[in-house]
Design brief:
- The protein is an alpha+beta fold.
- The chain is about 25% helix and about 25% strand.
- The longest helix has 28 residues, at about 330-355.
- The protein is globular, with a radius of gyration of 23 Å.
């Protein structure tokens, strides 16, 4: 086990002392959210990386980028360089370092039959097994003795693929992925995900902590104030209060009529049940993976931590069948994509203002709405539990 550093231990103690005021356990109208230091402190950011992002299932990449055997994609999760590799059977994840001197093996997406270290040309199979060590026992004395190579195999990371999305659990200690995702899976009956096709991706850089991006995603209270078009599409009196079940946060609404900005001119999921035909739902799998689903699309939202006051957002858009590629739907797709771009830009300024406000002594967790904000308390409880860990599994 790897112990927390002294700085991480101190910020952990400071954080836990601040949340011991009952803010997370009181009724929402009497409680509040996370303290400011969890959005501004560099040591707390490192604590999150060491605990939260290594001990949970974390989104790592898109399976559509790993189609052919030998496709490889470098990623970073919890401050750890990893590589996703497509074998004949599945996508696997490994720590992206050679076992000899620690050079990174893969620095950009590519396809290859094996992984070769640029330093001393040690080579590994797609399954992470050491193949050969040139000149290991001296000049022209190569090591190809497989029985003696197991100590030098790549270190594998727990990995699952769910639809088009690859998740990893670095510590290996997270609950079974199926049990974590079950509250979402239970609500997806009737949606044929096999009909979805990846279409486009939007990227945004924010001067804000990743948690503010996720909290903003799951909280619809701001819609009437920040999103004029969206409020016209579904008014506040038609919106449901967000809910939660374990590590899944969720919300949704019924809309009266489709709109081109929400894909009203695109093909729907085949044989969609009546109760899903005028329905939008969105979900967060704690900590930072989210998506929305409508009759004609799925839109993934990921908030990637970059620094205490910086994050990167990815929005990946999927449409149904011909709606994803056919020329006759190009204008309809463009309308939806532009709408997502506009909505996110409407959010960015507000999220960055909230980040700036986290430096104020006049704010510390907020005065919360008992209707809209219990989900924010749940997010805060999940984060508090995650960063309370004393250790992480050594690799």
């Amino acid at each position: 086990m790897t112990r927390l550093s002294a700085a991480q231990r101190q910020v952990q103690e400071d954080f836990l002392h601040q949340v011991q005021d009952g803010r997370l356990d009181k009724p929402t109208s009497e409680g509040s959210g996370l303290p400011n230091l969890s959005y501004t402190c560099a040591d707390f950011f490192r604590l999150e990386q060491q605990t939260l992002f290594r001990n949970n299932w974390i989104f790592a990449g898109f399976a559509h980028r790993l189609v052919a055997t030998g496709d490889m994609q470098p990623v970073e999760v919890g401050g750890q360089p990893l590589v996703l590799v497509k074998t004949r059977e599945t996508v696997r994840a490994f720590h992206n370092v050679c076992r000899h001197r620690g050079a990174r093996l893969v620095t950009e997406g590519r396809n290859a039959g094996k992984l070769i270290c640029p330093n001393h040309s040690w080579s590994y199979s797609l399954e992470g097994k050491l193949i050969a060590r040139p000149h290991f026992h001296g000049g022209e004395r190569h090591d190809v003795n497989k029985s003696d190579c197991h100590r030098a195999d790549l270190v594998e990371v727990r990995c699952v693929t769910w639809h088009d999305w690859v998740f990893v659990n670095i510590s290996g200690d997270a609950d079974d992925f199926e049990s974590c995702i079950e509250p979402i899976s239970a609500k997806l009956e009737g949606y044929d995900f096999e009909a979805l096709r990846f279409t486009d991706m939007l990227e945004f850089e924010l001067d804000a902590n990743w948690k503010l991006a996720i909290e903003n995603f799951i909280e619809p209270y701001h819609v009437f104030s920040c999103h004029p078009w969206l409020n016209g599409f579904v008014g506040m009196d038609e919106r449901e209060a967000p809910g939660f079940d374990g590590k899944v946060l969720s919300c949704g609404y019924h809309f009266k009529a489709a709109d081109p900005a929400r894909g009203g001119e695109l093909p729907w999921f085949p044989d969609l049940p009546a109760d899903k035909q005028n329905r939008g739902d969105w979900f967060v799998l704690f900590p930072n993976f989210a998506f929305e689903i409508f009759p004609d699309q799925v839109d993934v939202f990921v908030a990637w931590p970059q620094a205490p006051d910086k994050c990167r957002e990815t929005i990946a858009l999927y449409f149904v069948g011909d709606g994803a590629t056919a020329e006759r739907y190009s204008a309809a797709r463009a309308h939806v994509i532009q709408n997502w771009n506009d909505l996110n830009h409407e959010d960015i300024g507000v999220v960055e203002r909230m980040q700036s406000g986290r430096n104020s002594e006049g704010f510390d967790g907020g005065v919360l709405s008992p209707y809209w904000d219990p989900v924010l308390q749940q997010f805060a409880r999940l984060l508090t539990d995650a960063v309370s860990e004393d250790t992480v599994t050594a690799t």
